[in-house]
């Protein structure tokens, strides 16, 4: 007579099933966004950099110096672009699109339709 009673007791958990399940729906996993990093590229030879440096120093002595994007790293170019003041946003976007299209055509002439 005890045997059926023990079998019945072991088949039923002591706590409700909702308390036995892990509370996955109530917690969110902790994630942090990956940091945005600016690329420091250097596809220029030391001779090119030295020639540009002397060219800029000569222009600086004459008072004609200006910022050369060709010498800048990607991160310096991005920061300069972020700081650029734009008067007419629509016109500026059109100019940038034309520059991008022209650069793409120069780099990939076979892709021109």
TrEMBL record:
<protein>
    <submittedName>
        <fullName>Uncharacterized protein</fullName>
    </submittedName>
</protein>
<feature type="compositionally biased region" description="Basic and acidic residues">
    <location>
        <begin position="104"/>
        <end position="113"/>
    </location>
</feature>
<feature type="compositionally biased region" description="Basic and acidic residues">
    <location>
        <begin position="81"/>
        <end position="97"/>
    </location>
</feature>
<feature type="region of interest" description="Disordered">
    <location>
        <begin position="25"/>
        <end position="113"/>
    </location>
</feature>
<feature type="compositionally biased region" description="Basic and acidic residues">
    <location>
        <begin position="37"/>
        <end position="69"/>
    </location>
</feature>
